[in-house]
Design brief:
Radius of gyration: 17 Å
Distance between the termini: 30 Å
Helix content: 25-40%
Strand order of the largest sheet: 1-2-3-4-5-7-6
Shape: globular
Number of strands: 7
Structural class: alpha+beta
Number of helices: 8
Order of helices and strands: EHHHEEHHEHEHEEH
């Protein structure tokens, strides 16, 4: 299957696959179905708003048949994204995911509470790394070099936009993910009281260009068109 797999821009037809990938990798790298009765919650938090708000920074791993089996997505400017999340994205999902009252009592309520606190993403320690990202691959497609290809496409796109550095947050307990990010040159960003998270960052420079399908201006135009359709 590696012979035909390739990285390409996200398109509207990938929306269902994007959500499925997110659900199947959102529990510390594993399937999160048991955590949330509504399978749309995790994607509404960690995947769909990025594809909707910044489609030109969304890339998928295509298995060769047109099906997305992995993705990388994010924002070039976290502060701007948080504003758009609250003003544009949140109104689209509040009816499906009402804000919980009181202290969250279940994992689903904890995730729903996060939906209503996008400002949590803005931390002064991250100011020098204004972009941030999420990357996920279905298990059969991991450890084959595809994560590096996805990351290369994303960092190259950021660099072309003039964005100099990017960050991500990960569960500290996810040792395989940390090893992957270490190999890609991410380094720890010191954030006081990070809870269960570790923050990592790196420059967008020095990334080997990836020959992902449809590269160049035509692909970016298609990505923007896909977002406009949504």
């Amino acid at each position: 299957m590696d012979r035909t797999a390739h990285v390409r821009p996200y398109r509207l037809a990938d929306r269902e696959a994007l959500a499925d990938i997110c659900v199947r990798t959102a529990d510390n790298g594993g399937d999160s179905t048991h955590l949330c009765p509504d399978p749309g919650l995790m994607p509404a938090l960690f995947a769909e708003p990025y594809a909707h708000l910044e489609p030109d920074l969304a890339f998928v791993l295509d298995d060769g048949s047109g099906r997305a089996v992995g993705y990388v997505l994010g924002t070039a400017d976290t502060g701007r994204f948080v504003h758009a999340f609250r003003e544009t994205w949140l109104p689209r999902v509040t009816a499906r995911f009402p804000e919980p009252g009181g202290e969250p009592a279940t994992p689903a309520e904890e995730m729903t509470a996060l939906l209503y606190r996008p400002e949590r993403m803005v931390l002064p320690e991250l100011a020098e790394h204004p972009a941030h990202l999420h990357i996920d691959l279905l298990p059969p497609w991991q450890r084959r070099g595809h994560g590096r290809e996805l990351m290369g496409a994303f960092l190259d796109a950021l660099h072309r936009k003039g964005v100099r550095a990017v960050h991500l947050s990960m569960l500290t307990a996810n040792a395989p993910a940390r090893a992957f990010y270490d190999r890609l040159g991410f380094q720890v960003i010191d954030v006081p009281d990070p809870g269960p998270l570790t923050y990592l960052g790196r420059s967008t420079e020095g990334v080997e260009r990836v020959g992902w399908a449809g590269s160049g201006g035509r692909a970016r135009e298609r990505a923007r068109a896909a977002g406009a359709e949504g």
